[in-house]
Task: inverse folding
């Protein structure tokens, strides 16, 4: 089983433990994962770092999630089975759908376990992928082929972007607020469908990368008094069928619905804790809609894997070794990463 080894008479592995909010992750030897009924053990080939992981480490979601420390974070996982399961064979490369539902409620029956009242997320309420091995439910795995470093972001950034773009097609006009990994994947998906898109953000290097990918952009200068929505409208002089907010902060949510055409839709993806204040007459008289985007369904996972295999988008991974995970987290905090940080245990 590769890197599994014996230490003081027990099987252990290397992992990055989340032990205390506001502190770096602790790189330690921890017990090798125990496989529960219905689970298989994966050798982790790559694990993406989501901004949600950073929120947890910084304590910004304290009280919002039920989480017991210490825990191994990391929910964007591509791994290899170390022994046969019921559906997959030893050596198969798989990607994890990380939201584990009860299996019986209406949301689980609809293959939307992210809305299950009793959902548990691998890497939050269960040990995750910032380790050499992880035990996960086999029924939440999908077989994938290719470079695991490029595949790992599909497990959250990809599925969330696919969900955020569902139903948007050729000729639809879309404003994207934010330049993170999810926004980059969503923009590429929309471009492949023929939608008219405009991405707004405050990081010139990220916007330059978007332009390389053929995505029109507008720079929101940090010193401007205007919020991002006002700046976008000043640049485009138009309204949009959809506004996709990948930030979810005051600077993006403020006046964002004024960017919408009649019967337009605001989709909120980012979770930076902003508030949406909207006159009810604006919603009623213009027939506007607001939708929250939480992860994606099992079908969205199938869809994003297919879109990736068809070459509709690139995941833009930035690899780090497990020993460099705290450096990666700091780079995310400092907005240095263009794409998705991916840990290789």
Result:
């Amino acid at each position: 089983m590769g890197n599994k080894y014996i230490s003081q008479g027990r099987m252990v592995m290397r992992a990055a433990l989340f032990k205390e909010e506001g502190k770096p992750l602790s790189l330690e030897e921890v017990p090798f994962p125990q496989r529960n009924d219905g689970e298989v053990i994966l050798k982790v080939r790559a694990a993406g770092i989501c901004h949600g992981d950073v929120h947890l480490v910084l304590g910004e979601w304290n009280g919002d999630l039920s989480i017991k420390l210490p825990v191994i974070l990391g929910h964007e996982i591509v791994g290899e089975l170390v022994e046969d399961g019921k559906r997959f064979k030893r050596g198969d490369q798989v990607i994890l759908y990380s939201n584990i539902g009860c299996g019986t409620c209406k949301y689980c029956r609809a293959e939307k376990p992210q809305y299950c009242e009793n959902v548990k997320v691998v890497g939050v309420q269960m040990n995750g992928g910032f380790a050499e091995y992880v035990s996960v439910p086999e029924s939440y795995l999908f077989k994938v082929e290719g470079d695991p470093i490029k595949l790992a972001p599909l497990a959250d950034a990809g599925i969330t972007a696919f969900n955020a773009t569902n139903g948007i097609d050729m000729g639809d006009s879309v404003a994207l607020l934010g330049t993170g990994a999810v926004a980059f994947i969503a923009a590429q998906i929309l471009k492949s469908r023929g939608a008219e898109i405009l991405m707004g953000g405050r990081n010139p290097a990220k916007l330059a990368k978007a332009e390389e990918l053929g995505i029109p952009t507008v720079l929101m200068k940090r010193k401007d008094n205007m919020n991002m929505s006002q700046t976008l409208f000043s640049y485009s002089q138009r309204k949009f069928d959809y506004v996709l907010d990948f930030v979810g902060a005051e600077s993006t949510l403020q006046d964002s619905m004024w960017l919408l055409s009649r019967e337009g839709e605001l989709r909120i993806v980012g979770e930076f804790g902003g508030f949406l204040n909207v006159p009810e007459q604006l919603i009623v008289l213009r027939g506007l809609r607001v939708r929250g985007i939480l992860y994606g369904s099992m079908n969205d996972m199938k869809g994003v894997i297919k879109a990736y295999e068809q070459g509709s988008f690139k995941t833009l991974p930035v690899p780090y070794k497990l020993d460099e995970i705290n450096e990666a987290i700091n780079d995310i905090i400092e907005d240095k990463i263009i794409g998705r940080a991916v840990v290789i245990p």
